[in-house]
Design a protein that fits this description.
Layout: H1 11-15, H2 18-26, H3 30-44, H4 46-54, H5 65-68, H6 76-80, E1 99-104, E2 110-115, H7 121-134, E3 142-146, H8 154-169, E4 173-176, H9 182-192, E5 198-203, H10 205-217, E6 227-232, H11 238-247, H12 253-256, E7 257-263, E8 267-271, H13 274-285, H14 287-294, E9 301-304, E10 311-315, E11 318-323, E12 329-341, H15 343-352, E13 374-380, E14 385-387, E15 390-392, H16 394-401, E16 410-417, E17 429-434, H17 442-459, H18 461-466, E18 475-479
Parallel strand pairs: 3-4, 3-5, 5-6, 6-7, 17-18
Antiparallel strand pairs: 1-2, 7-8, 9-13, 10-11, 11-12, 12-13, 14-15, 16-17
Helix pairs in contact: 3-4, 7-8, 16-17
GO molecular function: ligase activity
Keywords: Ligase
Protein name: Phenylacetate--CoA ligase family protein
């Protein structure tokens, strides 16, 4: 079955119900859609045409999905940074896109991600899934409070735009955009939330928790506002989810929260659903089942995705995605470690573990489920640490340790972490190796912390814009040279831990 895509007929998103749209999409062949997008990109995107030619590939020879699976991967260094931005756009025209979002990398130099309004509709469909299937926002007046950083930063602008699409479609949603300023968020809640049946906070997990805790201390009665939460950017535990739900007066984590799997380059790639949350809570209670399915004892993020919107493949245990955008992605290596599980396969696995209706974990079968496949991810396969939605790179931290005076104390080795404390709060923990014969003291630790903070603010735009000022200074622990727990001799050093 061939169905016009939302990018081809934008009015379909506004005119058709979520139920009808999802039924149409589930009847389509995702592989055929990915192959069709490849053929269009090969013909209409100058950079991709040059990329294929450089690899000796004739587009007309790619006729089957097996041919498609043999195409070279694209990524940031070999594609995004190798060709001028306009040449990576449809028709080679940057002006064909009407909005720009920004993300930053390890050097602090921003990467621009253009798109047109119609490219957002697939992403708006992910928000519609959350707001209708979980929050019942079609039947409840809803105040949506965007707590992501605003400006051109991708999280805030994308979220706001998609929520406006839902309001235009007829959902009784009013969008407030205080950004990541707690005082403005509290003013919005205090003045507006009493006039709505429910309030949705959207932001990075640790920041949303900070808002909830500080708001409660300031006297905000969260339990009166039927608060729902939408997260993005970081993996968190189910214990953390339960803790945050308790603080807003919620006893229904599956229907009062949702996390989005998104990237600056690919948009929202998948979203938690009541079903996926209940399944993840089952795995949290049965780590042996999690190890069997995911291959690791730690719990990954687990979301469902629309394969017609974002077509996933695996490459050496990492995720590859194909999808339409202002800069179309064809077999784009996003470098997240993870895997794929079909809906039927997941249900079969759960039955083998005697997890049938999942009611024990908060799922209500009467509300139904959509038979979408699952993608799971453990986070970036590189050495970054995610903190308040910002990617913290070892290269940035190293500069802080290389300043005059400090360089006389430290070896240059360190371990960067963002652990979750007993109260559910995140901290940026930096463990630093001292030079032989150098003693640890609080003055050195404080000076190193301030130096690293200064360099992170200078070099990393995401850190500067996403991380609340009170959370920007790392907690520094100084350890002796060749400490066996952190800096063993003769072992290849890893600069991050998760």
């Amino acid at each position: 079955m061939t169905v016009p895509l939302l990018a081809d007929q934008p009015t379909r998103f506004l005119d058709r119900s979520l139920e009808d749209l999802m039924a149409e999409r589930l009847a389509c062949d995702p592989g055929a859609a990915a192959l069709s997008l490849f053929q269009r990109a090969a013909a209409e995107v100058p950079a991709y045409r040059s990329f294929l030619a450089a690899h000796g590939i004739r587009p007309d020879a790619v006729r089957t999905l097996a041919d498609f699976a043999r195409l070279p991967l694209t990524d940031k260094p070999a594609y995004m940074q190798a060709y001028p931005l306009p040449e990576r756009c449809w028709g080679g025209r940057l002006a064909a896109c009407d909005r720009i979002a920004v993300s930053s990398g390890s050097t602090g130099k921003p990467t621009f991600w253009p798109r047109a309004l119609h490219h957002e509709l697939d992403i708006a469909l992910r928000f519609e899934q959350v707001f209708r299937d979980a929050f019942q926002a079609h039947a409840r007046s809803t105040l949506a409070v965007v707590c992501f950083a605003l400006g051109n930063w991708v999280g805030g602008i994308y979220t706001t735009s998609c929520l406006w699409h839902l309001a235009r479609k007829g959902y009784p949603i009013t969008v407030a955009t205080p950004g990541n300023r707690p005082d403005e968020i509290f003013r919005v809640i205090g003045e507006l939330a009493p006039h709505f049946e429910q309030t949705v906070l959207l932001g990075y997990p640790p920041f949303v928790k900070d808002v909830i805790d500080a708001g409660a201390a300031a006297g905000i009665p969260w339990e009166r506002h039927a608060v729902k939460l939408v997260f993005a950017g970081e993996v968190f535990s189910e214990e953390w989810r339960s803790l945050v739900c308790a603080r807003i007066g919620s006893d229904s984590p599956c229907y009062d929260t949702a996390s989005l799997y998104g990237t600056a380059d690919g948009g929202v790639l998948g979203n938690e659903t009541p079903l996926s949350i209940a399944i993840r809570r089952f795995f949290a209670s049965h780590p042996e089942a999690a190890r069997e399915l995911f291959g690791e004892s730690r719990l990954p993020t687990l979301v469902q995705y629309d394969p017609l919107s974002r077509y996933f493949e695996l490459h050496d245990g990492t995720l590859v995605v194909t999808g339409d955008h202002g800069v179309p992605l064809i077999r784009y290596h996003i470098a997240d470690r993870g895997g794929l599980v079909g809906h039927a396969d997941m249900r079969d696995f759960l039955r083998d573990w005697d997890a049938h209706d999942l009611a024990e974990y908060g799922f209500d079968p009467a509300w139904g489920e959509r038979p979408l496949p699952f993608v799971y991810l453990f986070g970036r396969a590189d050495f970054t640490v995610s903190y308040y939605g910002a990617n913290i790179y070892p290269e940035n931290v190293a500069v802080g340790l290389e300043q005059p005076g400090i360089v006389d104390w430290v070896s240059g080795k360190f371990v960067l972490e963002a652990p979750e404390g007993a109260g559910g709060d995140r901290m940026l923990l930096l463990t630093v190796e001292l030079l032989p014969g150098v003693a640890s003291d609080e003055t050195k630790a404080a000076r190193i912390a301030e130096s690293v903070r200064t360099e992170l603010l200078r070099l990393n735009s995401e850190f500067a814009h996403y991380t609340p000022e009170a959370r920007q200074t790392p907690h520094v622990v100084l350890r002796p040279f060749a400490d066996p727990d952190y800096f063993p001799v003769g072992v290849k050093h890893r600069y991050t831990r998760r």
